[in-house]
From TrEMBL, chains A, B, C, D:
This is Chorismate synthase. One of its GO terms (molecular function) is FMN binding. One of its GO terms (cellular component) is cytosol. Homotetramer. NADP(+) binds at R48, R54. Pfam families: Chorismate_synt. It is an enzyme of class 4 (lyase). Its EC number is 4.2.3.5. Its cofactor is FMNH2. It comes from the Bacteria. It catalyses: 5-O-(1-carboxyvinyl)-3-phosphoshikimate = chorismate + phosphate. The lineage of its organism: Bacteria, Pseudomonadati, Pseudomonadota, Betaproteobacteria, Burkholderiales.
Length: 364, 364, 364, 364
């Protein structure tokens, strides 16, 4: 209820701050009987972790996960699965000067006013570091959905600042440091150059990310409020730095006519997917397609005007280690969040309508 | 839990179908001691109701609300407020031919596959008619927020299909049938012409809507999952036909640099609002600014390919009464949903941090 | 969240006050595909309704239920089922003198201090009249559980004040006005005499009620907090006037030894049921057995000392129509509440562990 | 939702098994600004921990708590507080023979049938060891309630098997190993003897515990379902081995008349407390009084009949270390649970009605 639990039937409660002793989560509601080891989780954490290229924060965190409960002899028991990740490379001194003033674009100002107290080290609770436990929980969800329904989650970068990135195929995503679905070497070099220039400028840039779920049975979602797309929007807008979410045709649907937008059906299935795999809040069996706008990182070296706690003017420069484009590491996070939304709806559907595995209709 | 309740502390549970005997909702959690009459609610319902101009559905529904509980001698008692609206102009025969096949772009296909049974009359539960109780509940929320904090909600249309609509001032919004914030007579005439042509074509069009909350204290929202912007995205994406949601700079933030996007602070307050009034999931005290993409209405007269329940090809033409642009009536709905999100966070903040009414900082 | 919704997956949100225009509820989460008519619900309401004998309140309420939604062509659709019951025999004048002072044993004092405002007519929201919608919702739950699992709910009175009532067989329960499971005519006459004397005295008396669920599969319930017995205790203690709840051996287990209490298992099943059908919070497949203590009705004609809103001494006599023993009508209510607990756990179990209908083991 | 979270606004999610690497919890919703150290929590854990006398289990667990998050510079920040307790004295071999058969009176049978898999070491998730994190979370709740409202929680044993224990004053509770509120040396010696005999017999015994909350403001609780007493019953019945719960007069109210039971009011306050401090589900400002029946420990050395997983007859003797009367250590657990219920209602009341600290009326 107080904003640190995600999901209703597959509930993930996270804890921790960027520079505290540890971060982690408790997963309540994972079905029993699934094989699960730390290695299953570590692989996804490694895709998200800092320090994997020169384009992301150089904080060195192995993000090694420990399963504290809920697994017996390598099998989930249906009881809570606690995941623990110790923080190892906290350098709180890097953040010394931001304890007293509010970084523009950051949660400093709002946390201070809300709570009257805040942990300023590395952004405390508002740090993107807190997406690590989510990725861990997402790995558990993905494994279950894959085994039960064959559902897969895929994400890629579609724009790095003003550089649009084409979609040339999922096979490219892990062959470059940007999760770009392209093998266009010239474009990738341009992206690297842009990032290098940004670092020299001490500035940051936004990004656009696409994420999809494939192999989703028809029928997941709720009628009015916990619509599948509403819950996806909630999940995505909740990721640090996200400022916009689209499902299917998204904002392009504004200029479409009904005769163009509404996906026709034939005996072979839907003939298009402007809907993004969701109609009336319920999955159609097609790919769920989502697009995210991610703002530029707020922690930058460019000096910026602000005020301190007493309201006096202050100039803020953020040193320390940061991602010049938080959008890069957002791809595995968005995949994890989408998985968490879907497993919750999978379980809810099973509660309401029984365990009938509806045949996925043929898709376009 | 099963998707028909909105909100946690100010919970609105709706019921009803488009052509059933009645629609309505139960509001649980309205604070005691507020003056409330049916007239307070009716005003907002009248802004949403059908038949107010030739550009919206001609279904004649007075949408007269009856308060069944929770108010004693004109004052809320803290117990559930039930609102009842009888359906009066159901013409189920208009929909006869859609009971057996699935309208493209509609929830018919997904409801059928999810539940194995559906009420096809007027879209049943998936009808936009079910936004009426939400607008009613929103009126209660708006009254309380206005009286307690001076919070106001305003919305307007910013695009009708490919016609962009400028923002010239809130005073124009109720002087035209589109909720357009402009007095540009030529533009309004062009919009009327476009709508008339659409009706002749039997087709529909999308829209973009902006909605803001003004007078929101700093400090509302939760740290990680129930972020204020995440809950807003959830609320907005849950409105019928919405396919995209932006907060603040939205998708434009992709191409921005951090030195441009992050709103600086001076002693006079924030010098911009790219954040849309939310940082780290918590309100800044500035206007909350939201933008929505609304797809074109799926019910159109243009014949479209589909299949029936047995999977045989079918041609679907939707007769009956429809909005050629559901985006028009979406404005009061989006305002109501934003109010419902904010009252929930207002109450949650009060639970967590006490009833301190934080002075709203000076705003840009 | 604000205390007017019961259940998580089969959620019942009630509304209304004793003397307002109507009472009712919204059931969210009823599985689709079940045949349901108002007659299915009315039968249970009739068992609870006032005026059925001279021993209960003489308020004349037909308690006629109207289904407003969620049922199409006689079949549940999976969407919310709203039940409406109009109040017809409100005589608010009967309660005139209690608007200003607090009836001993009543919620008057606490509602006033909590909310600063209250509806005093007939106890307003705190009236036992509000159990009618619960019984209605319970009828829906019972029908589903009976059809899916063969689960049945049975209740009877075991003590009327200091008169202990033996259990001679369920067949007697509906052959007397007390829900007593006995055909002992002398005892029943003694009970009638006691009630008649009470009415002459203007006083009231407590009761003890037993309620069981039969045909519950093994495996329903949660491990630590939403234990089946914990949720049953919550449900039962929430019924008006209940002051004690026992599961299985209840308070008798205090003086038992482990070698006596712990029910042994043989190939024929459990050899006893001190556990009351629940071990570790999860159903064993045996009868769930529950016992309730119900306090004497607080509204009595005997003058009692109290204070008024200003704190001045006041003498309170409650006229109007009351049950001299609220325990009588508590039997069908307790059955309904037990059904609501069980359907919630049935659905939750299905979410977690799939739709395997575990064979009920042979029972004692 | 899956049964491992207690509370809505002050939510405690526990994790861990008796013989896994660690147990712990995440507290979400603790208000910011309260001083908190591990020592504040350790004191309560020490009252509950095993091995404090020869009458409880001899498992040696220091139950040392580590705060992993939510506290910065010794002050709560409003973000989740994670508590970690490493298990140190697991001797799983002690339980070897119970992995294949079901101990009478234990959760073995039901967990196995529910999940199809279970952690048998020390009862796994169903072990009373899992009350340690609850006591930890309760310590945080108690501190906040004490500082904000002066609320205190007190508990004592009232019966050890068939030995009734009088209440002679709270000062005695910590001067004996039973939490008995008596200084009667002869009685205490009799209790010690009874326990010694039980250990020799390899058997166990039940207990009755009273627990109260003192200094509760008037007005906490909800009207219909989340009644304060309903939530207390839920909390108490959820404690391992509890089979009965009473509020106020409890089962004695069955034989009372309304003219006796209903507590009159004078200008000095209530003249009795049969209600147990709750009327209509809302606190009266008097002491909240609760009584619990605790069954005899199921793990005993006396051989008992059972079956194994294949349904074959088996004789079960439980070796290892056990509490011959789990009721002894239940006292601090019941206090903690009561504190968790009350803080949740305190926060909920603040959400609904603002932060008015209602003056506690003069009490009897």
């Amino acid at each position: 209820m107080s904003g640190n639990t995600f999901g209703k039937l597959f509930s993930v409660t996270t804890f921790g701050e960027s520079h505290g002793p540890a971060i982690g989560c408790v997963i309540d509601g994972c079905p029993p009987g699934m094989a699960l080891t730390e290695a299953d989780i570590q692989a996804d954490l490694d895709r998200r972790k800092p320090g994997t290229s020169r384009h992301v924060t150089q904080r060195q965190e192995p993000d090694r996960v420990e399963i504290l409960s809920g697994v017996y002899q390598g099998v989930t028991t249906g009881t809570p699965i606690a995941l623990l990740i110790r923080n190892e490379d906290q350098r709180s001194k890097d953040y010394g000067n931001i304890a007293e003033s509010f970084r523009p674009g950051h949660a400093d100002y709002t946390y201070w006013h809300k709570y009257g107290v805040r942990d300023p080290r590395g952004g405390g609770r508002s740090s993107a570091r807190l997406t690590a436990p989510v990725v861990g929980a997402g790995a558990v969800a993905r494994k279950w959905l894959r085994e039960q329904y064959g559902t897969e989650f895929l994400g890629c970068m579609r724009a790095l600042g003003d550089i649009d990135v084409p979609f040339d195929g999922w096979e490219h995503v892990h062959a470059n440091p940007f999760f770009a679905a392209t093998g266009d070497a010239a474009l990738l070099a341009r992206m690297e150059d842009a990032m290098d220039q940004l670092r020299r400028d001490g500035d940051s840039i936004g990004a656009r990310i696409d994420v999809i779920a494939r192999g989703v049975p028809v029928g997941w979602g709720q009628p009015i409020y916990d619509k599948l797309d509403a819950d996806i929007a909630y999940a995505m807008m909740g990721i640090n730095a996200v400022k916009g979410v689209e499902i299917g045709a998204g904002f392009a649907s504004v200029a479409q006519r009904g005769s163009e937008h509404g996906d026709e059906l034939t005996q072979e299935g839907f003939v298009g997917n402007h809907a993004g795999g969701v109609l009336g809040g319920i999955s159609t069996g097609q790919d769920i397609t989502v697009s995210l706008a991610i703002k530029p990182t707020s922690s930058i070296r460019v000096p910026r005007r602000s005020i301190d706690k007493e309201g006096n003017p202050a100039l803020v420069e953020t040193f320390g280690r940061h991602d010049p484009c938080v959008g890069i590491r957002a791809t595995p996070i968005a995949e994890a969040m989408l998985a968490l939304v879907l497993i919750d709806h999978a379980l809810m559907h099973r509660a309401q309508c029984g365990d009938v595995k509806v045949a996925t209709p043929r898709l376009t």
